Amino acid sequence: xxxxxxxxxxxxxxxxxxxxxxxxxxxxxxxxxxxxxxxxxxxxxxxxxxxxxxxxxxxxxxxxxxxxxxxxxxxxxxxxxxxxxxxxxxxxxxxxxxxxxxxxxxxxxxxxxxxxxxxxxxxxxxxxxxxxxxxxxxxxxxxxxxxxxxxxxxxxxxxxxxxxxxxxxxxxxxxxxxxxxxxxxxxxxxxxxxxxxxxxxxxxxxxxxxxxxxxxxxxxxxxxxxxxxxxxxxxxxxxxxxxxxxxxxxxxxxxxxxxxxxxxxxxxxxxxxxxxxxxxxxxxxxxxxxxxxxxxxxxxxxxxxxxxxxxxxxxxxxxxxxxxxxxxxxx
Length: 331
Prior knowledge:
Layout: H1 2-11, H2 15-26, H3 31-37, H4 44-83, H5 102-116, E1 120-121, E2 127-129, H6 130-133, E3 158-160, H7 165-174, E4 179-188, E5 199-208, H8 214-228, E6 234-241, E7 244-253, E8 270-279, H9 281-284, E9 296-302, H10 303-311, H11 324-327
Parallel strand pairs: 1-4
Antiparallel strand pairs: 2-3, 4-5, 5-9, 6-7, 7-8, 8-9
Helix pairs in contact: 1-4, 2-4, 5-10
């Protein structure tokens, strides 16, 4: 019987099987315990001899059990390590991370492009005076942009700026020429549709340097457009703005059809990008300048419009809905 038990211990294939054998042999009702209970029926001489045999057998079985337990523990650990091992050839898990919003990225691109052309980056408040937003820019009292339907007014002759051109006025108030600067930021108008939102972003630039010409304006803006759209062609069309004279709008060849004509450019092959012109003498005289003293030019554009053109976004509202399906495309 002892030989059979030893054989069972040696051939145990799992820790569970070995545990069942341990209980069977060494448990309270196990073989060793039963043999020990039988000693009370023996006389003293036999009891001593039988007890010695039982203890010797127990030690032998414990030794076999402990060796087999060590072997099975090592096997179990090896199997666990194998199942939990890391395959270093498997690609790592991608950790989700944020990135810049496409509008922020475009603002950074614009600032970088004009910084390379020698422009300073300036900023101004979003709540402005009526003077800086309209009067100083030669916008007459009857102009439609002054209406309550086009401007958010406060009660104290202040408003939410409708363009970043107000920063140009602040530059003229606090600085002397030469003034070469751009500003980008939020502006506000009561519009909401596929191409307009009540809050959007604009960029304005001023170049007030003695001897500045319209040719300088064209060269700088052409350089800027090419930095954003390397294959673009540009053209200037006469236009009217109250604060520039002469004025123009800059168009670029449609990137969707390479100027051939499509639905995006309404079959014209061209897309309007920005307005520009030589600073009006009516604006300069607010600050004590005449055209004989100084000449300069200004320009402005909608940043969302550039984002929509560059990335083919058809509805401006998508830029403000925080839809990850859109934003993940810019990661």
